[in-house]
Amino acid sequence: MSSKHLICIVGPTAVGKTALSLAFAKAYKTEILSCDSRQLFKEMSIGTAVPTEVELQVARHHFIQNRSIHDDYSVGDFERDAMDLLKRLFDKHDVAIMVGGSTLYEKAVTHGLDYFPDVDPAILDQLESDLKNHGLSYLLKELRQKDLLTFNEIDQDNSRRVLRALSIIRSSGQPYSSFKTGVASTREFTIYKVGLEAPREELYDRINRRVDVMLQNGLIKEVQELLPHKELRAMKTVGYQEVFPFLEGTYDIEEAIRLIKRNSRRFAKRQLTWYRKDPDINWFDYRTSHTQIVRQVHKSIMENQ
After folding, report:
1. Are 32 and 155 in the same domain?
2. Which domain holds residue 75?
3. Are residues 204 and 295 in the same domain?
4. pLDDT of residue 101
5. Tens of pLDDT, residues 16-48
6. pLDDT at residue 116 greater than cutoff 90
7. Distance (Å, rounded) from C-alpha 219 to C-alpha 223?
8. Ribosomal protein: present as a keyword of the record (predicted)?
9. Is 173 annotated as a binding-site member?
10. Are residues 107 and 128 in the same domain?
11. Would the annotation count 17 as a binding residue?
12. Residue 18 among known ligand-binding residues
């Protein structure tokens, strides 16, 4: 077992991952990697709940607002950049911290990504057109016919995931699932996963209150400034996609708020469904003191050296 450790903090949105990551960073005097696919973008601050200026001063953070929504940045790019960064960090530290709720980004670092063939841009354009003209249900029907395994496993509310799977299928003529090996990449460091969980009603209340704070902090104004770019992939994000129709007069602000809260709760449910499948996660109640969690994790790491 390597003497270098990546402590990976996961859990549903609004459960308190950022605060816990800061406790670990202070305890180990180390740096934090964000694995949030939206906190990457400098144009999206309020709706993605990026760490505050005070929080950013506690420890050095990476992959926070270092890209533009106009950049073509994939999960594969993130895996490459994160692995390069970890190599440098482990030259200085025995421990690094990774935190975030983007499940695929977390998996890219902890397990690696499967190889998929290149996709003809024309196929992507056609899929985007099919989605716009026929809707997601139309694409899901095609996915079910061509790759039942992926259809049963995929997040059927996530249009980007569905488009990705179908782009591979149409390009290669093979099921998307046939390219998934399930074999984890070898890492030169040991991974310790820490999960935060909360009773459902308490989590939903935290989510609702977080949305209220975002609105108080100027979420509507932030989304309004992004309205000209609403077709970009980054804008297909909870907290943004619900506000655009309000700004265009489709429904009122109360409906926009209701949809943000509902979709945020649904997102949290999908996150938990994903994480519950991972037997390597060590779960803690979100009310457990950070000192206790840090102490328990450190003890476990030392015992397994």
Report:
1. no
2. 5-113+183-303
3. yes
4. 86
5. 999 999 999 999 999 999 999 999 999 999 999
6. no
7. 6
8. no
9. no
10. no
11. yes
12. yes
Residue 83 and residue 193 in one domain: yes
pLDDT tens digits, 117-147 = 888 888 988 999 999 999 999 999 999 999 9
Structure tokens at 47: 């709706």
Q: Which two tokens stand for residue 130?
A: 């099919």
Lookup result for tokens 């940045």: 73
Q: What is the DSSP string of 49-110?
A: TPPPHHHHHHS-EESSS-B-TTS---HHHHHHHHHHHHHHHHHH-SEEEEE-S-HHHHHHHH
Residue 26 is labelled as binding a ligand: no
11 labeled part of a ligand binding site: yes
One domain for residues 99 and 229:
yes
**238 annotated to a ligand binding site:** no
Q: Do the annotations mark residue 245 as ligand-binding?
A: no
**Is the CB of residue 219 less than 8 Å from the CB of residue 241?**
no
**Residue 227 near residue 247 (C-beta atoms within 8 A):** yes
Considering the domain architecture, whether residues 25 and 70 belong to the same structural domain is answered as yes
The pLDDT tens digits for 79-99 are 999 999 999 999 999 999 999
> Are residues 55 and 168 located together in one domain of the fold?
no
Ligand-binding site membership of 277 (annotated): no
Domain count, the chain: 2
